[in-house]
Amino acid sequence: MPDSPSHASPTSTSSDDYSAHYYAAHLGSEEDYSWDTASWREFFLRAATRIVALRAPSTVLDVGCAKGLLVQALVERGVDARGFDISEFAIAGAHPDVRDRVFVGTATDPIAGRFDLVTCIEVLEHMSSDEAQRAIDHMCSVTDAILLSSSPSDFGEPTHVNVQQPATWAAWMAERGFYRRTDADLSFLTPWAVLFERASVTTRDLVHRYEAHIAPLIGASVEIRTALLEAHREISDLTERVRAGSPDPQLRQELSETQEQLSEANHHLLTMRDHVVGTEAQVGRLNRDLALALYRAKKFENRVKIVKARREEVRTRARRLNRRQGVLTKELEAARRRVEELEGELASHRSLARRVASRVKRMAR
Amino acid sequence: MSSPGPLFSIVTPVYEPPLDVLDAAIESVLAQDFDDWELILVDDRSPSEAVRELLRGHAERDPRITLVERADNGHIVAASNDGIALARGTFVVLLDHDDLLAPQALRRNAEEIADRAEVDYLYSDEDKVDEDGTFWGRFHKPDWSPERLRGQMYTSHLSVIRREVLERVGGFRTGFDGSQDHDLALRVGEVAREVVHIPEVLYHWRVIVGSAAADIDAKPYAHEAGKRAVQEHLDRVGIRASVQDGVEAGRYRIVRDLAAEHRVSLVIPTIGQSSSVFGTRRELIVEAVRTALQKTSHGDVEVVVVYDSPTPDGVLDHLRDVAGDSLRLVEFDEPFNYSRKMNVGVLHSTGDRVVFLNDDVEVISHGWLEQLVAPLDETDVGMTGAKLYFADSTIQHAGHGYWGGHYHHPFCFRPGSESGPFGELVVNREVSGVTAACAAMRRDTFDQIGGFAESLPVNFNDVDLSYKVTSAGLRIVWVANCELFHFESQTRERSAHVWERQRVVERWGIPGRDSFTPAPSAWPMLRHPAVFDLEILNR
What we know:
Chain A is an alpha/beta fold. In chain A, 59% of the residues lie in helices and 9% in strands.
């Protein structure tokens, strides 16, 4: 607010410091900081979802809301959210959908109304220490829960005039009766975001709450450091060995054994190939031999057929001849009998002279 | 051409031959027992009118004969090309004006062509014919041998070339007179899809003193033209080599360059023996390695020595002295198995080229390694071998020959200075196999075919290896200008067992006819009962 008394303070910033250039240069993203940019829109929608899940607020006030992206995201998630920002440029650039939910204002002024949750993200480090204290007071007066995020380390940005450690913020919040929700992890927003709630806590409860987190963290830290040290030593050892080019005797032994096995496998492969090539050749040779043998067999088969046919022919002729012989034999028999008959007939008509002659012949024997 | 031409166009350039000889040549065409041909006679302006009279008479009597009468004398190249330009046949047959075709020449070619759709070039055997009609001096040619053709014009007569191919390569070239046929054969061979050799005499080459068929010695210009033709061929096909004069006219030495990027691994088995050579006792392996390294200019040579455990330490020390950092010693403690030793050696080597070497050799020729290894750059060459001499300088190895049921060392015991009947001992040539006493392979080929057969521990492992290379579709080249002594005993009884021979026969069958070294051309001066089979003589 230009007419604010604190405006004179050299460590305070004003609306003019958050011009178009600021948004272009300091938001950690190459992309245009607006609702229309998908990556920013999705980032704030995810954050809104988580916030609703954590606390289910009906009303939220975003202090230092810039262009109202978180406001818009919360509205999308059904929350009655509002916001204000010191930058006129930012408010002027708000999306039409949330134009009536955001306004120009400074956190050093008292806040009207009452809210289930006040968010104040990356705002307080831009204000002087005194202004920040006042802003915290105002916020604490309108809510019982504050989501506070303020960068503990980004000293490079010129408008970060009040960078403090989370412990410092937590202490200031505790002065006002607000304590960290140690069960809530807000790293979806920034690594240092914390949800503070108004509570009346005993020292014992508080110690317990923090110890429950510190003890495991210390343990984890020691383990991580030990592992890191071991890894470092191993790396330097390996580096040394690679540089020296001499694997340890065991590795060397393994290497030579592996080489031996490889050599044996190669040798085996070679003899197997010889066997395959030889067997293929043998099969080829046998096939040729077989083809030749089949060819010869076929020729023999044909000759056998011819011979068989001739044998059949000869047999038929033999049978015919046999039959003819039978007929001839019978005819011969008949002829013989006829001769005998004729001879008998002849004998009964023998002449005297013949009879005498035959008797003389008989006597002469 | 509108009408389909005949199968054969015989082209015969004519220049002043004796009339009876010319008539006999034409009659030998008319006497063919095959009819689908035309004869184109080109008179190259013969001085005698009688020559033209004779040609005209034939052309008038037979419509298949065409006569071209040139107005001027253009020499053989121009005259032959004139004839080819008129040819209508599918194949062109080249017949000289004083030679004779065998009566079955065209029929036999036609039969081979009918069986092979892709054949572009056919050649057959030839002999010589005297004035009295006696046939003699048959040239038993090898089957298609591109490397042999670089060393000599061996395809010669009768050459039958697909006309389309002949036209594609541009016919005969001027400037190569006297070796124009060699130049043509080289160019046709470069593009031919298939080249066929008919191992029968289909052509008789007439020898008349002083005729055109005179010896190439009478025509030094022909030798020079041939040399140029071979050099141009090498340049065309991308072989880095130079052509040098061979020991006789018409023979050429191909001297190759070996690319420096090849790592060559010599693989040598040994038991560290010492022996008396040329009257001096020597450690064989040490001298083998010493001469091998001394007689090469190649930079990247690795020496892998596979030594049996009993090898004396002194020998190994001497080897270290001779071979230095290039030496790799591999101990072998198993029972003797030559094949296994060689396989182990190759597996321990790192070169992309592998040379097998016996330990009882001594390198003679400078650049032996380059000449032995460089032909392997041709991807269809699978193995190369060397020319080996006994200690008395007679031939020990000039390629293997597998014929007539046996595995032979053709030309064995011939004088080392001999050229062989048709240059077989002085030109590089394709062979059926080589001895592993000195041979080279690409590592990828060795792996692909499975190295040496370990089932053949002593004999015939190189025969089997050669068969494997050939069966993979690769050529084996015997390199005439890679010369070594091989101190193998000349009198040693070769004791091969029946089972060893059987093992090779099981795979590859009984050898019948050798494709590259026909038995009749390989007869030795001396016969050795263990090496040469008398039975062959009676064939």
